[in-house]
Amino acid sequence: MNAAAYSAQIYFDQREELLRSLKNSAIRIPASSPSLHLYAEMKGDGVMAAPLPSGDPASSWALLLTKRDLHAISSAYTRLIHFLPRQGMKTTSIWPAESPDAIVNPQQAKLIEQELMKVELAADKSQVQKMVWLDVSGKMRDSLYIFSLLDPRQPAAGWLGLELHSIDSGIEFPSIHGSSYVLLDQNQDAVLQSVPQLEMPEQFRKSFQQDAFGLYGNNFWPDYMALNKRVGEAGWNLVYYIPIGHLLYDGRVAIQLALLLCALLIAAVFLGMRYIRDYLIVPATKQYDALLDMASFSQTMIETAPVALCVLRRENGSVALANELTRSWLDGEEDWQAKVLTNPYGDKDREMILRDGRDVYLTIAPTRYRGEEVLLCAFIDITAHKRIETSLLQAKISADEANTAKTIFLTTMSHELRTPLYGMLGALELFSMTTVTNQQRMYLNAMQQSSSILLNVVSDTLDISRIEAGQVKLEASAFSPVALVEEVVAVYAARAERKSLDIYSLPDPRIPDALIGDVIRVKQILNNLMTNAIKFTQTGRVVVRSELLATTDDMVTLAIRVEDTGRGIASEDLVHIFEPFYQVEQDALLKNGTGLGLSICWRFAQILGGTMDATSQPGVGSIFSLTLSLPINKSAVSQDVPVLDDVKLYVHSGFRDLSENICGWLAAWGGAAIRYDKALHQDDGKAILLDIASSRKQGGIAWSGPRIVAKLPGSSLDDDAKNKSQLVHIYSVRAIAKAIDRVQRLHDVIETTEVEPQAAPMELRILTVEDNPINRMILKEQLSHLGCEVEFAGNGREALDRADLMEFDIILTDVNMPVVDGYELTERLRKMEYRKPIFGITANAIPEDEQRCLAVGMNRVLTKPLSIAVLQAELQSIQG
Fold first, then answer.
1. Checking phi first, is residue 230 left (phi over 0); if not, alpha (psi -120 to 50) or beta?
2. Which of 606, 638, 601 is nearest to 480 (CA)?
3. CA pair distance 99, 155, nearest whole angstrom
């Protein structure tokens, strides 16, 4: 609409400019000038001189029109005319030249004259300077006139005008459907309109006095949208308008889309606001509230904390924040900030003593507070803790002193008790080797049993005391678990034989031959279990079973079980069996135990990193298990492994588990070992029979081939079996394998264990250094019984003073003696280049004494009391 109005304005302005240009080409010709001559001259130059009628005889006017002017008049769809209102309304068509009747009729001329005269006679003389637009009725509806005085100073010269044709071609319609236009003159009368049959809206006549655009109507809702443009100098208005209904109808799709977009926009804004509220504003508000709560909580917590808290600025050490405790503790404290700032990164935890004597523990943490680098300091009052610590330290010192005193007491008591016990047990042992009556033998056995019980009580008490004091130290060494089990069984074989019990071991063939551990403690545990098993088993057997539970490249886990067929333990007693001094009621009737043995075993197992447990069924027997995890000794030199070269073997025994265990070992060494069954296997004269004799009554086997007999305690052999069989030690599977190897190679070497031959005299010259006269007498009798030549010295000084000191084969010395004790004696002997064996004898059965003895150069350490068997075994180990 605006473009159309702009185009119409240009249309009217161009016509006014054309008329103004043509008027400027008019010249006044005085009466004395020959107009025809002038016309002829100008015509020759391509300019047409058009003479104009004049109401003044003294002068006349002419228009000098060029071809360009004539072309402009024609292309603008106009006619150039001259009108003399004072000369009878004379109208002249200058271009194109036509008769006056073809221009206007008298009635129209009269109307033109009236309008032009109004302008000439107007009081406002400026009106004559303007263009006059006229709409003359009777002409075509789209024809208009523009007039301008040829000479405003001489109105008689007439009016020069343009008659406009085809005005519709100059006034464009807006592109909006239903839009219209109306051309209003200076009186607001419609000159032209696009829809003649419709009456012009009355409100347009009143509203348009200047350029305007807006909505117009008589009611609240507007009826039209209109655009007004003033055209020309005469005050005419060109108005474009369109009914609101048409506008809405034509733009219904766009309006609907706009409304839809607005709705979508409103929905998006609503959803966006809701999203912002739910996911930004509300969380931010909650977070802000939480921060406020946290700040308030932190402030309250800092103020009410039972420790002094403060924040120090790193830059100058000033306090940025502190609670009441900090202010009360550090008020008046000098240079405490400097102490805190001293190495705050390397020494974040330290102790300080305040001016009032308060001990505080300071903890420092670097952090930031309100954009500054600060240190968060926490002061904890440890004054009471310091007092408690001092008290505990003093209590620990007192406890250590008491523990040391107890250890010294127990060591002294052990020494003082073992020394007379040695004299008692040694004398009883020697007395038992003499000829005595049956009644004396009974008394002698009672004395020996009571003395042994007393010795066990002393040993167990000393062990439990060392455990409670934490003085038990493990001594790891390489050992063979199979050999250890066999050794323990062999030691207790004699006791089992006295009670006609079968005793044997079942070592697992998969167990490695060399492990590392405290073999002394393991043996002590097994000895205690074996003692109890034989003590409480009247008939049947005692079996030591070892089993490999798990293995890795470096470690093995094995279980050693001692099984017996004794009377068993009730379940209510079994849960307390490992408690100190606990004894089963029926066992207490025997009056030969302290109730400490199993407790010591359980504690030793814990120290070794293992476990102990027990299962029992009254009337059936008991099983005590020791489970240990031990490292494998990879550096050990492997023992000589027997090679049986696929020897065909039959193993005969009254115990299936023993037969199967021996078959497993022999098969591992290459033998074809099978458990013997009389109904399935026949004597072919080549197979070797391993016959294990036990206390069980079983039928003899007629066997013509090679035969090896392994005799269990309590078993007996007839003369034929003794003569035709090779006897072997049942407690060593390696001994059995060697016997099989000898039989396989047709060696006739017989090894028997039924009767130990009398040991040959040792013929050793021994110096015994002992300060106790009773012990000297017992040692003399025991060593003499073994065939040794014995000399005595009362202490180390007497021994060193002997001229023949270096000639003795072995020196037995007590450890604790007056003047010169056994430690100093041994050191001085070794400095004197004495290279022969030195045995230490002590009543202190603690590892520390044994380690000290070995450290000064002793070869063996023997614990009192000593039996003849122990002396014989130790001397034979040195002899050879």
1. beta
2. 638
3. 24
Confidence of residue 34 (pLDDT cuts 50, 70, 90): low
**Per-chain mean pLDDT for the chain:** 79
DSSP state of 583: -
CB atoms within 10 A of CB 792: 17
Distance CA 434, CA 759 (A): 18
- Burial, 28: exposed, middle or buried (Cβ in 10 Å; 0-12, 13-18, 19+)? middle
Q: Which two tokens stand for residue 339?
A: 């102490």
H/E element holding 853?
A: helix 847-856
For the four alpha carbons of 99, 103, 106 and 109, in that order, the dihedral sign comes to negative
The one-character DSSP state at 278 is: I
Is the pLDDT higher at 472 or at 291?
A: 291
Token pair in block for residue 174: 């807006």
Q: Is the pLDDT of residue 194 over 80?
A: no
Percent of the chain clearing pLDDT 90 (strictly above): 12
State how far the Cα of 376 lies from the Cα of 340, in Å rounded to an integer: 10
84, 90 Cβ separation under 8 angstroms: yes
What whole-number distance in Å separates Cα of residue 805 and Cα of residue 813?
13
286, with CB counted inside 10 A (0-12, 13-18, 19+), is exposed
Beta-bridge mates of residue 28:
61
For the stretch 589-612, pLDDT in tens is: 444 566 778 888 898 899 889 999
Question: CA–CA distance from 518 to each of 34, 117, 789 (Å)?
Answer: 161, 149, 36
Any idea which of 211-225, 422-436, 445-459 has the lowest mean pLDDT? 445-459
DSSP 174-238: PSSTT-EEEEE-TTS-EEEES-TTSPPPHHHHHH-SSSEEEEE-SSSS--EEEEEEEETTTTEEE
**Strand ranges (E), 459-532:** 477-479, 502-506, 515-517
How far is Cα 624 from Cα 614, in angstroms, rounded to an integer? Answer: 5
Q: Which residues contact 427 (CB under 8 A, 6 or more apart)?
A: 778
CA distance 157 to 28: 9
DSSP assignments along 734-785, one per residue: HHHHHHHHHHHTT-------SSPPPPPP---EEEEE-S-HHHHHHHHHHHHH
Amino acid 812: pLDDT: 92
Q: CA-to-CA distance for 65 and 537, rounded, in angstroms?
A: 161
The three-state secondary structure class of 559 is: strand
CB 836 within 8 A of CB 407: no
- The pLDDT assigned to 443 comes to 66
Among 667, 670, 661, 747, smallest CA distance to 710 is for 661
204-233 burial, b at 16+ Cβ within 10 Å, e below that, comes to bbebbeeeeeeebeeeeeebbbbbbbbbbb
Task: Determine the distance from the C-alpha atom of residue 256 to the mean position of all C-alpha atoms in its chain, rounded to a whole number.
Answer: 60
Structure tokens belonging to residue 124: 């406002």
| Residue 700: band (very low, low, confident or very high) from pLDDT cuts 50, 70, 90 | low
Quick one: three-class SS letters along 359-385? EEEEEEEEEEECCEEEEEEEEEECHHH
- What the block records as the tokens of 569 is 């333990």
- Token duo for residue 446: 């009672």
Phi/psi at 257 (5° precision) = -65, -40
Three-class SS of residue 727?
strand
Q: Judge contact between 856 and 838, C-beta under 8 A.
A: no
Cβ atoms of 861 and 850 within 8 Å: the answer is yes
Quick one: tokens of 556? 């093995």
Q: Residue range 358-371: average pLDDT? A: 87
Beta bridge partners of 683: none
Please state whether 265 falls in left (phi above 0), alpha (psi between -120 and 50) or beta: alpha
